[in-house]
Design goal:
With about 260 residues, the chain is mainly α. It is built from twelve helices and no strands.
Length: about 260
């Protein structure tokens, strides 16, 4: 409240708190303040507040290797097309031909990315799980009459601000060496939109499908309106917001707080 340029301090603040093992209680404190100003459960952690920025930076730092083992193989496949490639995806073509090979290929990529994410909970860094656990319980406390808010509090970060952003901008998360070309970028954008919607708890309803600007995406997404997708998301969110000790996954890396 007193610092005008507080967002400039987020990255060094997160690094400092990580070093001293104080990040989780700090995030819990600023998230609780954030929730006091949140009037509706469906807008939880959607803005750019101090709390959400801190969690964003934390995920970029400690989740780097987690993203790499989870998404890099399929991102590489999109970048270097095989026989399952979407080819030259364009909006006009999709509107006209999405029911043909393009739909099958897009479904293949979305299925693969979604499958890799929901089975990756064992690889999620403990610190991220601890933060998600804290956010989940704060959300449930703030909106006790909404049974879904504890899940949306976690999905708004891990799906919307982590996996979906990494899919559409893999170069910013060091999953690709440079910005994808126009063809690959179009494909990644469509995959990211689908992952965002799949990851939004309780979003697999007809009313939510109206949020797609593109008619072809509404039609395409109807193929995902199955209970198994909702249950997979719920189980994944339960797993990554648990404080139970995880089995050694063999994929953890030390966090480097100094760069350059």
């Amino acid at each position: 409240e007193v610092c005008r340029d507080k967002y400039d301090a987020v990255l060094p603040l997160v690094r400092l708190l990580l070093h001293h093992h104080k990040l989780v209680p700090f995030v819990a404190a600023v998230a609780e303040l954030d929730l006091k100003d949140t009037q509706e459960a469906n807008t939880i952690f959607r803005g750019n507040s101090l709390a959400t920025r801190c969690v964003d930076e934390m995920m970029k730092i400690v989740g780097k290797h987690y993203l790499k083992v989870t998404l890099k193989p399929v991102i590489d496949e999109v970048g270097y097309p095989t026989e399952t490639s979407l080819g030259d995806v364009n909006v006009h073509g999709l509107k006209k031909y999405l029911s043909t090979q393009l739909q099958e290929n897009l479904r293949y990529y979305v299925d693969k990315v979604f499958r890799e994410i929901v089975r990756s909970s064992i690889s999620c860094p403990t610190l991220m799980c601890d933060v998600f656990y804290s956010l989940r319980h704060l959300a449930a406390k703030r909106f006790p009459n909404d049974p879904h808010v504890q899940y949306s509090a976690v999905s708004s970060f891990v799906f919307l601000r982590f996996f979906a952003v990494a899919v559409v901008s893999p170069h910013t998360f060091h999953l690709r060496p440079h910005h994808p070309d126009a063809q690959t970028s179009r494909t990644l954008t469509l995959i990211s939109k689908a992952i965002q919607t799949l990851g939004s708890w309780g979003s697999l309803t007809k009313s939510k499908l109206s949020s797609f600007k593109e008619t072809f995406m509404c039609e395409f997404f109807k193929t995902f309106q199955e209970e198994k997708f909702t249950e997979s998301v719920k189980k994944f969110l339960d797993d990554v917001s648990s404080t139970e000790s995880k089995e050694p996954s063999g994929v953890s890396e030390p966090v480097h707080l100094k760069e350059g």
